[in-house]
Amino acid sequence: MAGRNHLYIPGPTNVPQSVLNAMNVAMEDHRSPAFPKLLKPLLEDLKKVFRTETGQCFIFPATGTAGWEVAFTNTLSPGDKVLIYRFGQFGHLWANMAKRLGLDVELHEVTWGKGIPLEHLTARLQEDTQHEIKAVLATHNETSTGVTSDIAGVRKALNSTNHPALLFVDGVSSIASIDFRMDEWGVDAAISGSQKGFMMPAGGAFLCFSQKALAMIDTAGFPRCFLDLKDQMTNNKDGYTPYTPSIPILYGLREALNLLLAEGMENVYARHYHLAEGTRRAVAAWGLNICAQAGFESNTVTAVVVPADKDARQVIATAFNKYNLSLGGGLSEVMGKVFRIGHIGDMNEISMLGAIAGAEMAMLDHGFAIKPGSGVGAALEYYRLNAQ
Ligand code: PLP
Fold it and tell me: Disulfide: which of 97, 117, 121, 142 matches 147 by Cβ 3.0-4.6 Å?
């Protein structure tokens, strides 16, 4: 098919040309005296994206899933109780990992489309007078439903109940795109990955730990080796890694950080809001709903709910086969019920209008009762009148 594939899944996201160019490097000796000049500034600059001065960042040649495991195994012990709310596929997988590792998972079901219920959380923490809950697991942005939770509110719930549990945040599809504040929100372990807001290929797990979490490494009872933070710390302090790093990922990260920091994190967040809001206006103009309930709307991904007599999988297939447009599918409980438009990473207004037009054409092809151009029209008016 002529023309490029238009990638609008919520990760992996489009990689800017300058990041691709930066990754196209000859391999080099990661034990050379020059290597720390690459790694040390990366670890420092990552802190600016996680918004921390007191935390410590880590880079693993892995993905977000490994980041979850790093957080568990370096701070907790088998049998420890962790609290999680399940309202999407990634929370489900995170809880599942905790279970498989032998943690005692207290799982509360929440309607898909909502996020962390702060009142329930506060009441539950209050009730836990023996402090059996060792960590609260918070999915900041549930990519499967396009739901963003209030992490400042989770911290408030912990503080107002004087609960000492660690706060783990899955920021895989939020950090570097949606407002995130490690220090201000008292996050103990923040987990992200290279292939979303960082605008890179998968292959980098980026983490940040608070001093409180780091202090638990010595007492954490899980066996660990590849994911041991102590090995990272011993080597990182001199600018090295405990095993062979992915050289292209590191050079790509250098350029991605340059781009993010040049734009400014506040501007990055504002751009993601702007692009998301235009997309939401388009969905409303189609007469459709988004999966996220009011107050939980995500600025990185919008899950569009199709009418009950339609199958979102057909829309996605037509978008791909006929229009060379990749939309995100519905996962698990929402399979066939939603398609997802990613507006994360290297995106601008015109790129979003392309995705909205393609989704609109695919829906029209499947007999959706929408007016041609309605979504595109609503989005472009929003973008035009609210240009940044
Ligand atoms: N958490 C969230 C919110 C995600 O969106 C994803 C992947 O899409 C993951 C975790 C898992 O990350 P990875 O696929 O990089 O292992």
Answer: 142
**What's the 192 CA to ligand 1 centre distance in angstroms?**
8
Q: Which amino acid is at 337?
A: K
Q: Report which DSSP code applies to 368.
A: -
Ligand 1 pocket test target in 9, 13, 65 with most atoms within 8 Å of CB: 65
Q: How far apart are CA 58 and CA 245, in angstroms?
A: 12
Say which residues have a Cβ less than 8 Å from residue 305's Cβ, sequence separation at least 6: 288, 289, 290, 291, 337, 338
Q: Please write the tens of the pLDDT for every residue from 98-115.
A: 999 999 999 999 999 999
Total Cβ atoms within 10 A of residue 263? 12
Q: How many CB atoms lie within 10 A of CB 85?
A: 25
**Any residues with Cβ below 6 Å from ligand 1, and which?**
11, 63-65, 90, 139, 141, 143, 170, 172-173, 193, 202
Contact, 147 vs 113, CB < 8 A?
A: yes
Amino acid of residue 202: A
Asked if 10 and 279 count as a contact pair (C-beta separation under 8 A), the reply is no
* Listed residue (315, 321, 364) closest to 341, CA to CA: 315
Question: How many residues would you count in the chain?
Answer: 388
